Amino acid sequence: MSVIQDIREKYAKWAVVAIALALLGFILTDYLSTRGKISGGNSTTLGTVNGKKIEYVKFENKLRLIEQQAQAQGQPVGEEQRSQNIERLWSQEVEQIIMAAEFEKLGINVGKKELNDWLFGSNPPQDLKQRFTDEQGQYSAAAAQDAINQMKRSVNQADRDQLDSYIAAIEYSRQTEKFNSLLSNTVYYPKWYIEKQNTEASGLSKISYVSYPYAKIVDSTVKVSDKEIEEYINKNKDQYKQEESRSISYVVFSASPTAEDTAAVRAQVAALRPEFETAKEPAAFLARFGSTMQYSDTYYGKSQIQVPNKDSIFSLALNGVYGPYTDNGSIVMAKLIDIKTMPDSVKARHILVQTTDPQRGQLILDDSVAKKRIDSIELAIKGGASFEQLARQYSDDKGSGEKGGILSNPSNPQTNYFNSGQMVKEFNDFCFEGKTGEKKVVKTVFGYHLIEILDQKNFQPHYKIAYFAKSIVASDETDRVALNEASRFASESRSLKAFDENFAKTLAPKGKQKLIATNIKPTDNFIEGINAYGLSRQLVREIYKADMGDVLQQHRVGDQYIVVAVTEVLKEGTMPVSKARFTIEPLIRNKKKATLIKEKLGKITTLDAVAAAIQEPVRTIDSMRFTGGQLGFEPRVTGASFNIANKGKLISEPITGISAVYVVRVDDITSTPIPTASIEEQKKQLRDRGLQMTRYYSQPIQVLKKISKIKDYRRNFY
């Protein structure tokens, strides 16, 4: 027992250490497994802008709020939409951090009194104005203020967060307006500048010249070394910055449905035809057997129905079935439910008393109150009141209300005639099944409408058709064959060299193509030629985990298996010689060609001697303007042609131009009057043009972004 006790005492402390090390190892393992959320030594930093952090948790909360608002409005929130929301929110966060610093430098802020005046004054934000305008068309600032105060006091944190985001956006918008106004007022053109421009524009030069185009010297005879390109890059680093990116080669192995798969789906659909023909409730039948097309209990005119074999469908007897046939990746059967002669378009007006907001699912007005209000409006119109005037005053549809209730075509607002199926069902049915001149109160998901049919055009047969559809999908066998082929190619191609050799040997003879995708950014959501959101994002992550020359295992994207080889890895910073050569090499080569041409010219005496030396003719431009054009873009030649010191003498030195070497003689410089506006009018035109260019082509934020230090770690989170 004493021996055991000695062992216990002697090694107890080592056991504690061992346990501690094991726990530490467990913690480190967990830490390393979650490094996807770690960047730059900070586990929550999504990115930095000029040293200021964008935190992942706050960013994710804002993103979630955006998605909740979209869902409340019935908008999709799929992978593609989420990716777009992330990109928009990131840009917004970056811009706001950059602009906040500019606002602080300039002392631009929004005080509490100014904010209240804007929210509750005579010219409020459009969304508040629309939401809190009463029946008389007056904005109710008190109602708006009450709603905002309720959100401030809400026990629901989401309500308070939403209000904070709204107020922050309002303040930022106001600060941006002030900044842009301040910037706009700095655009100024002095009088001397306008006068100088007018003098230059009126100038007229007559020149004689000889040119030797660079194209006459074969490119292959003028070599440009890597060292020369590197020296050029070092002198012009700002022009040759690059973002981090990668390029790949890839091979696609299709797992798309085969002809056999299509035939199997066709047979499955055809087997249901007898039951489809006898089904009394088409909607129930479609739901029971999993149709990918829902039943629309609406009549559509001939011109609106665009499906294959529509004439055959139109000729069916009632409850007759046509098909199966192929349509847009599905096998379809069509059943003719009913035919009715109706107009193809209707002009109508309405007055809406809204009870609910179907997008947000919010109750706006009690149903009984709304019904009494619409009945009162109907009674007033029957008594001789103006429909147009009451629509302007009382309709909750402000868009049509401003036009006396007249509705526009949702797909083409330029016309007031809409087609069947463009309005909610109850509204649509009355307009197309009623008669011109009829008025009726109709209840829809929006509330109560008093509708008047003003006109109906082009009466024709309208059809109610039920479509049963099944998507054509690949069988398990089709998928297995594609997977095996892709897996075999990937396993046999473990390097870029092996990838290329294996492709040339085994796949090229079968007609397969090796594709490329370049300039793939770390946060890209799709790859050139592989436009599958989400799935492509996963592949981008894998590409960025790989090194140059690595070949990835097969990756499923949509109905394809893809094997990728990483062919280029570019780090953020200055372009390497290999990447910059394409743009720099022609510049250096032309410079070298210019040197060769000047050596060939030798000592210049006369223009004729130059022409003889290089076997090029002497050309003349009698009326050359300072704005150029006759020689293309050759600013050095234009400048020399209007230099008064050159008049009457041969240019002693050849001019290295953009496309050639020129020797110019200035024969005469004169001026001619040109029609111009007043100095003040020209200044205004230039200022307006400058503001327009700033607004549309070179917004301040784009310039500020270029000079900011922006670090983007989103790849580790999304």
Instruction: Give the oligomer, counting copies of the same chain as homo and different chains as hetero.
Output: single chain
Secondary-structure-based class equals alpha+beta
Helix count from the secondary structure assignment: 25
Mean pLDDT: 87
Structure commentary:
The protein has 718 residues and is α+β, with helices and mostly antiparallel strands. Helix 2 (56-72) packs across helix 3 (79-106). The longest helix is centred in the first third of the chain and has 32 residues, at 2-33. The radius of gyration is 37 Å and the shape is extended. Mean pLDDT is 87; it is low at 1-42.
How would you summarize this macromolecular structure in one to three sentences?
The protein has about 725 residues and is of the alpha+beta class. It is built from 25 helices and 21 strands.
Topology of helices and strands:
Layout: H1 2-33, E1 45-49, E2 52-55, H2 56-72, H3 79-106, H4 112-120, H5 126-131, H6 141-153, H7 157-184, H8 191-202, E3 203-213, H9 226-235, E4 241-242, E5 245-254, H10 259-270, H11 273-278, H12 282-288, E6 300-301, H13 310-314, E7 321-327, E8 330-354, E9 356-357, E10 362-363, H14 367-382, H15 387-394, H16 398-401, E11 417-419, H17 425-433, E12 439-443, E13 447-471, H18 476-491, H19 496-507, E14 514-520, H20 535-545, E15 555-557, E16 560-570, E17 573-574, H21 577-601, H22 607-614, E18 619-624, H23 635-641, E19 655-656, E20 660-671, H24 679-696, H25 700-706, E21 710-712
Antiparallel strand pairs: 1-2, 1-21, 3-18, 3-20, 4-17, 5-14, 5-16, 6-13, 7-8, 8-11, 8-13, 9-10, 12-13, 15-16, 19-20
Helix pairs in contact: 2-3, 9-21
